[in-house]
Amino acid sequence: MTQLHIEALAWAPQERGRAPRPLLQGVDLHVGPGEFVGLIGPNGSGKTSLLRCAYRANPPDQGRVSLGADDIWLRSARWCAQRIAVVLQEFPDEFGLSVAEVVAMGRAPHKGLFDGDSAEDARHVVQALAQVGLAEQRERAFASLSGGEKQRVLLARALVQAPQLLMLDEPTNHLDPRYQLELLQHLRSLGLSILASFHDLNLAAAFCDRLYVIDGGRLVASGTPQAVLTPGLLRQVFGVEALVDRHPLHTYPRITWITRP
Amino acid sequence: MRVGHSTAAYRWLIVLLSVVLLLSCLIALAFGPASVPLAKVAGIVGQQLGIDMPGEWSQSQAHIVWLIRAPRVLLGALVGAGLALVGSALQAVTRNPLADPHLLGVSSGAALGAVLVMLYLGEFIGVFSLPLAAFMGAAASMLLVIGVARRNGRMETDRLLLAGVAVSFVLMAVVNLLLYTGDQHAAASVVFWMLGGLGAARWHVIWLPALCVVLGLVTLQMLGRGLNALMSGEQTALSLGFNGRRLRLQVFTCTSLLTGVLVSLSGAIGFVGLMVPHMARALVGAENRRLMPVSALLGAIFLVWVDVAARTLIAPQDLPIGIATAALGGLFFIALLKR
């Protein structure tokens, strides 16, 4: 099984006429085989930028991103897409693709220029849609789905990619509690290596094996949810007061925000 | 009305549209100032293709049908197919449903090339002068647009659209200035060319657009998966293993060259490249590898019939086909909106 290794990563957006201001600095992160790793941090802390560096969208200015023994920047985008699937917060569709067509795109990294769509591709699509509970919706227009259904279609597309590593950018956005839990339970059951960013810290605590906390482009803490999610860290990074205790039914921590009356 | 995902239904649709296109071409040969009945048209075409057909026709009828009308109908079908194909690909790659083949300033560049030749150089290499100059202008304006749109070695879609519009305006200003100050006789022939027409079609030039349309279709079909991904977003395309920047450059180059060849032979024909892809999407959906062949066939059928209208509405004169596509297409679209 492959692992994702990020070492001493620094990245700054390219803007003309301005000295590059690094958005990520000195980031060391790894995801082991079958591990579910969460990335948390306030808005603008660099979560999305870090994920982009990890799925070969943002070329790092310093440091190295490797999958197994391979530096992903010495490999092609296609090579990466055969191994890393990404579920993004991006679903523009002005033209009315159907659900099955959106999911079938996930086969692209495994197809040559002259390959048609095979029966095996169709089977992958049907299987993935069944896995996310949308088998009946395959002919529907993607644009007509609810936000939660769209999110699940994009997960189906990632599964069709047959990846070793799955990355998700705030996968539980747009989902109601039932689908949040279903999605995350489903992700856990896949046995894939997963790196996902979260806004909801209780969800992150409940499902992740380990968490990384990013603030101002630097990792400020990492470890198990119990070790990381302390009132002190929540105050320091998110600027809010919270009670942290053990979840009544499980071993992971539970965060209760303290609001002023 | 939409053809589902069954491959069999899609194949039948392609067969049906191909038959409609062939019949349309044949029937279109019967229209024109000199009337030639359909049976004789079939006989003349059959004879040329080496099939013995019953019936009699005069030498001049054979001449009109085979040497004048046939290349014209064929050019109409090719231009319609090519423009619709280019429109489909550009709409996908720019994620803009209003993108059309003239988006990248190709038509204004072609117009400038045509004006310069007509006003200053004359037909320096015979009948090919105008098409050649138009094509050079189209290629130059395409490079100009891509050059303007690039920044830091990157090329974003929004910038490209804006660059296309800006370059078009500047080039058209030059064209209009030259027309306004230049020799009025030459200017009139340039204006006539700009309105679009298939009158320049001859058998000895038809191979060029035919080759370009076929190559364009094959190339864009190969890029089809990438077009689908790019249609869903930049990051999505990347996460599926496509280099968006390179893919866009490939599509822009391919479509600009194809448009340049077509525009140089037929003038700037609007509407086909903008609207036909939307009609095709209503039939088979937005998946580009399914869409583009249907779009090309519909475009071909559409332009063959519009050219029939252009030849008959004010016969014996030709109505410039650009006027006919704009008028018919616009009315058709209004009818669709009001339904």
UniProtKB/TrEMBL annotation, chain A:
CDD domains: ABC_Iron-Siderophores_B12_Hemin. Residues 4-241 form the ABC transporter domain. It comes from the Bacteria. InterPro entries: AAA+_ATPase (IPR003593), ABC_transporter-like_ATP-bd (IPR003439), ABC_transporter-like_CS (IPR017871), P-loop_NTPase (IPR027417). The keyword Membrane does not apply. Gene3D superfamilies: P-loop containing nucleotide triphosphate hydrolases. Keywords: ATP-binding, Nucleotide-binding. One of its GO terms (molecular function) is ATP binding. It holds the Pfam family ABC_tran. SMART domains: AAA. The keyword ATP-binding applies. PANTHER family: ABC TRANSPORTER ATP-BINDING PROTEIN (PTHR42794:SF2), HEMIN IMPORT ATP-BINDING PROTEIN HMUV (PTHR42794). This is ABC transporter ATP-binding protein. It comes from Pseudomonas capeferrum.
